[in-house]
Amino acid sequence: MTKLEVKNLSRTFGSTRAVEDVSLNVDEGELVCLLGPSGSGKSTVLRMIGGFERPSTGSILIDGADVTNVPPERRATGMVFQSHALWTHMNVFANVAFGLKLRRLGREEIRTRTERALNMVGLTGYGNRRPSQLSGGQQQRVALARSLVLEPKILLLDEPFASLDQHLRERLREEVREIQHRAGITMIFVTHGQDEALALADRVAIMRDGRIEQVDRPDVVYRQPQTEFVAGFIGQMNLLAGDVHAGSLRAGGIALPVSLSDGPATLAIRPEDLCLQRANGEWDATVLRVTDFGTHLAVELRTETGAQFKAMTSPSEEWVPGMRTKMLPRKFTVYRDGRVCDLPMPTLDSDKSARASYLTYSKTLQLSDNQH
Ligand SMILES: Nc1ncnc2c1ncn2[C@@H]1O[C@H](COP(=O)(O)OP(=O)(O)OP(=O)(O)O)[C@@H](O)[C@H]1O
Q1: What is the Cα–Cα distance from 25 to 13, expressed in whole angstroms?
Q2: pLDDT band per the 50, 70, 90 thresholds, residue 371
Q3: Which atom from ligand 1 is nearest to the alpha carbon of 19?
Q4: May I ask the CATH class of domain 2-229?
Q5: For a FRET experiment, which of 14, 161, 211, 333 has its CA 20 to 30 Å from that of 91?
Q6: What is the DSSP letter of 346?
Q7: Which of 12, 15, 16 to mutate to test the pocket of ligand 1 (most atoms within 8 A of CB)?
């Protein structure tokens, strides 16, 4: 059963189209990250789901019921912001219990639920402290407890850990994941940190200019980016503008067989998919720089056309600046007009010369693989 359905949501502010035709389904107990550069519309989508912003068009359904015009407090959603805005004159217990008091619940129930929420975020025993007596990370946990205590069906988190240092952020990220698993809460988490999104999410929605470019599992987003933007935004990628002519894509000084009509196209190769082979005769690139990360070598290369490539190789390989190499991508993707091209392996019937060059290419690749 789908917990949350966002249908064709748009929002304009004056002449700014902050969100354009966004649709997204989030399942019960799922954690979806909205990821994208600054200004891509992530917060506006989240605020519309929470009821803090009115959509210009589109609708929002929770458990099948249309809540587009329902006020935030009646939506079964909770929201945690980057700035936690705790009430400094109240202690931690009162901060967390506040929402329950507004609902006029009994004393005992308020105490039990507040203590449970504090326990969930690892703050048992901190109830009597003032926010000023807590660290930044602890304050953010109080903000989290303040939302959790209301037992929302959907928890919306807008860069909740952005102001914390890397170490603390990672720890809290783990804790959120654990709470999400334990309590089975559906969560939507806004971030512009791709590591955070890939580590945390069941699915990642990548936003750009108010639109969702791709929604998929983190591994799919990484391995099969559907647009050139996603390819360049997630992880490291060699992205090179090129041209297809007679079944060959030339980009950045290398040529690869493709079964694609003539015209401009962009070549995308992950550094870990770029095999290097020492060249005695013909060569593609010269090694510029080598960084040893222990687990792998990062090798920067330059082709004769001046294009730069990054490759990631095993630390047992020996590469030094000035060496000449052949570059053989194990896997590559081609984009045209910003969208991924389906590149089936050419068949004998359809294109004999393309298939022949593909087979030659695969064979060279196998040879270089065997050398590793
Ligand atoms: N209340 C508002 N009035 C006018 N423009 C707004 C308003 N809120 C957002 N915008 C604009 O809408 C666009 C999307 O903003 P939004 O905050 O949703 O992006 P974001 O992806 O969350 O960015 P960030 O990562 O920087 O928080 C931006 O161009 C922003 O300037």
Answers
A1: 25
A2: very low
A3: 14
A4: alpha beta
A5: 161
A6: P
A7: 16
